[in-house]
Amino acid sequence: MSASASPVSTGSPGIPHLDVDPFAMNFFADPYPTHEVLREAGPVVYLDKWNVYGVARYAEVHAVLNDPATFCSSRGVGLSDFKKETPWRPPSLILEADPPAHTRTRAVLSKVLSPTVMKQVRDRFTAAAEERVDALIDKRSFDAVADLAEAYPLSIFPDALGLKPEGREHLIPYASVVFNAFGPPNQLRQEAIERSAPHQAYVAEQCQRENLAPGGFGACIHAHVDEGAITATEAPLLVRSLLSAGLDTTVNGIGAAIYCLARFPDQWQRLRDDLSLARGAFEEAVRFESPVQTFFRTTTREVELSGATIGEGEKVLMFLAAANRDPRRWDKPDSYDITRRTSGHVGFGSGIHMCVGQLVARLEGEVMLTALAKRIAKIEITGEPKRRFNNTLRGLDSLPVTITPA
User: How far apart are CA 383 and CA 144, in angstroms?
Assistant: First the structure.
C-alpha cells in the first residue's frame, strides 16, 4: 500500500494527502504499519480514496469526539452523509443523533444500564461465566471465539435484555451488518446489507414491547414511555441500539483479551497472581486491540483543527485504534500491560457518545477473565487464528486454544 504524504491542492492547503484505503482487506489484515504512517504524516490528513479527512493521533481524535457541536453524528457516523443520501435503516437515536435529541434518549439508556443495575446483575453474570469455564475445562481444546467470546455473552445478555429464546442466532450477524454499513460502498458493505433482511426483521420484531420479558433491560426501556421520557415509536429503536451496542463490543472485547493473554503468558501469570487485575486486563485489551477501529463525524461549520482548516459538511474519519497506540499519549503503546493505567483510551469512544454498552462489556469482561484465571493455569494457541473482516470492527473469527486446568 503506497502512502504518499505530499500536500496536494484539493482539500485544505498544507494537509498531507495519503493514498491509503482503511477499508481494504490488506489494511484489515495488519493495520498497524499504516496507523503509524497516518499518525506521522500530520495531525490531520486527507484520504484521496474516499475524499475524507482523517485523524489518527490521540489528541485530535479526542478533540473531535469531545466537540459534538462541530463534529456531528446526526449526519451518520459512517461514510454515508445522511444529509445527502437516505440511510439504509432508520437512524439510531443514540449513535446517529445530536443534542438535545440525543441527550433525552441517552438519559433513558444510562438509567437502564446504570452502575446500580450492573450491581444487581453481577452475581448472575458471574455464575454464567463460571458455568462456561467449567464446560470449557471439560473440553480442554476449543475455539476461544465460538465457545467463549461469543458463547458467554450470548448465554447471558439476551436473557438480561428479555429476548425470547428462539431466533438469537440472528444477533451476531445483525451487529456485523450494522458495523459493516458504516464503511464505504465496498464488497463487505454491499454483501452485508444484501444479507441483512432476515436479521433486520428479527431485530425489529424482538424490540416490540409485547415480545420482551418483564424485568429485562428491554422492558425497562419501554417503561420510560409511560413516564413520558420517550415516545412509543422511540422505545423499540432504543432497544435496537442496545442489541447492537451490547453484544459485538463485548464479544470482540473478550476475544481480544483471550488473544492477548494467550500470547503474553507473563501477563496471564500476573492476572492469576492478582485477580483484582481482571478489569485492567480487559480494559488494556480494548486499548491494545481496539474492537471498534473507526468512526466518522461530519463538520457542521468550517473549523480549524491543529492548524488544519476543514470546511463545513466534510466527513472526518477518526482512527480510534491508531489513537489508542499513539506514542504521544502512551508509554510503550505496542505492549500489552495489564497494570497500565488505561483511563482515557478511546476504545469505547469518549464524550457524549461514549459506548452506551460499556458498563455491560466491562462487567462481562471482568467476571469472565476472573473465572478463567481462577481455574486455568495455561492458555495456548493451538491453531492459526483467523480474522473476521469488518469495515468498523476488528475481531477474530476463530482462535483455537488448549487450556491446562490449575
Answer: 11
All domains in the chain, ordered by first residue: 6-405 (1.10.630.10)
Give the whole-angstrom CA distance, residue 134 versus residue 305. 52
What's the confidence (pLDDT) of residue 356?
87
Name the one residue in this structure whose C-alpha cell is 420517550: 230
Please give the average per-residue pLDDT across 384-400, as a whole number. 97
**pLDDT by residue (tens digit) across 290-309?**
999 999 999 999 999 999 99
Rg for the chain (alpha carbons), in Å? Answer: 21
| Placement of cell 471498534 in the chain | 292
* Among 317, 251, 319, 308, residue whose Cα is nearest residue 285: 251
The arithmetic mean of pLDDT across residues 16-31, rounded, is 97
pLDDT (tens digit, 9 = 90+) per residue, 71-128? 999 999 999 999 999 999 999 999 999 999 999 999 999 999 999 999 999 999 999 9
* Contact yes or no for 176/393 (Cβ under 8 A): yes
